[in-house]
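Worked problem 6 (solution included).
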Amino acid sequence: MLKISNLSLVKTQKRILQELSLGIPKRRATLLLGKSGSGKTTLLRCIAELETDYRGDIAYQGQRLS
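Solution. The predicted structure is:
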């Protein structure tokens, strides 16, 4: 399971993600929908550890990502 808790990210004084929490179970397809600029790609970049300045926790199978 991928678990995201209270994820927030601010870039150039603009809040991109604000206290986002969600859980994605194993073996499930998940779709992210939203308007352009709503933070979908930024969320995926945080999960992939391409963004590191976020606040909150991201854990995969119980292991916290750095």
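Discussion: Residues 31 and 40 are 10 Å apart (CA to CA).
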